[in-house]
C-alpha cells in the first residue's frame, strides 16, 4: 500500500471515535497514531485504558475487530511504542 490516503485515515478515525464512545464509559480512549505502508495501524490508549490489565483484549477483540470490519486497507492493529 502506498502512503495512506486521507479517506482511509478518515475512516479509521471514524471507527476509533465510535470505539471511544464505549471506552469513555470507563474513562479511557484510543487515538490514531499512524498507518504503515504494510497495513499495520498504530494506536495509543489514554486514561484508564492505558493502564488497564484488559488492554490486550480491548485492543484485539474491540478496537482491531471494529477497524478490520470497516477498513479493508488495515491488516492489523498494534500499540504505538511511545
Structure description:
The structure is a single chain. With 82 residues, this protein is α+β, with helices and mostly antiparallel strands. The chain has one domain (6-79): GMP Synthetase, Chain A, domain 3, CATH 3.30.300. 41% of the residues lie in helices and 24% in strands. It has helices at residues 6-23, 55-70, and strands at 28-35, 40-47, 76-79. It has a 3-stranded mixed β-sheet. Helix 1 (6-23) packs across helix 2 (55-70). It is globular and about 30 Å long. The N and C termini lie far apart (24 Å).
Q: Report the span from N to C terminus.
A: 24 Å
Number of E strands: 3
Low-confidence stretches: none
> What structural class do you assign from the helix and strand content?
alpha+beta
What would you say the CATH architecture is? Answer: 2-Layer Sandwich
- Please, how many domains? 1
Spell the H/E element sequence.
HEEHE
Output the CATH topology. GMP Synthetase, Chain A, domain 3
Brief characterization of the structure:
By secondary structure, the chain is of the alpha+beta class. Helix content is 41%, strand content 24%. The chain has helices at 6-23, 55-70, and strands spanning 28-35, 40-47, 76-79.
Which terms would index this structure?
single chain, 82 residues, alpha+beta, GMP Synthetase, Chain A, domain 3, 3-stranded mixed sheet, 2 helices
List the helices and strands and how they pair.
Layout: H1 6-23, E1 28-35, E2 40-47, H2 55-70, E3 76-79
Helix pairs in contact: 1-2
